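Can't paste images in this forum, so I'm doing it all in text. The chain is below; anyone willing to post the predicted structure tokens underneath?
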Amino acid sequence: MLNIFTLANGRLFQEEIESLEELSRFQPIWVDLESPTLEEKRWVKQYYGLSIPEDAMDEDIEESARFYEEDNGELHIRSDFLIADAEEPRTVRVAFILNLMNDALKSKGVLFSIHDEDVPVFRLLRLRARRAPGLIEDAKEVLLKLFDADAEYSADTLEGIYDELEKVSTQVLAGDVTDALAGEVLGAIARQEDLNGRIRRNVMDTRRAVSFMMRSRMLNAGQFEEARQILRDIESLDNHTAFLFDKINFLMDATVGFININQNKIIKIFSVASVALLPPTLIASIYGMNLSFPEFQVLGSAAYPYVLVLMVASALVPMWYFRKRGWLK
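Text version of the structure:
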């Protein structure tokens, strides 16, 4: 899918391109390629003179491979954007090419973005730019606003994680944690921990991209200050992710502690039962020997009930003692 975005009366407008001829009708500041076909890549190369690198979507992590400037003045930035899907949270790699020497728009330039699927941050920026005139002035501003929206999207996702952890905390700290509930709680905590980790990696990547833009000296004074504000916002997000990791670890330890308590209760029952059955076992072992006991000669036919009563009594006395000491609770 090939979409272009133009500025009109200070607002950003979107046009979906379906042929090469349509490109000549617009002067975009942003060209967005979502899962582009070979034909769409050919249109971009033919009309804008831009060749999309074959390794644009590679998972390189070295800064030199993700942030660099070509000899012709093109700036290449590869950045990850978060998709906080409830079922499958993930990050999407986006390749940006900022061409500030475009013949059609020498003053504003053109930003090209290539990615495999739609990104929530892109939708958020499109919505804002249509409603707020003057929000975007040039291609560099588009890229900055995308990173700004990415930081805000990460902040909103962190708030959602905190809300989910509050629900889990209420369940855990209530005290009555069964093994089934503990399993559900551990699953919920693991999902939030994974999402929190993705956010931390995402904002770290955004920090690197914004820092590269500031070092490239391509931003004007206002945009440079905006970039510094984005970095300050990211710094606060780093602190919040660290806080959430601590909270996750606390809830994880508390849940595992309740599981251990439940297991100890079961072990305690078996231990009490074993101790309570030791006296009857001893009595049965003694009277089970092939010997002639004097008391049996006195009791006669009452010997059997006598032994049974003695065994039951020897089991009940320890149970009564354990109950009195509170060991059966």
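The chain is about 60% helix and 15% strand. Strands lie at 2-8, 11-17, 30-34, 67-69, 75-83, 90-99, 110-115.
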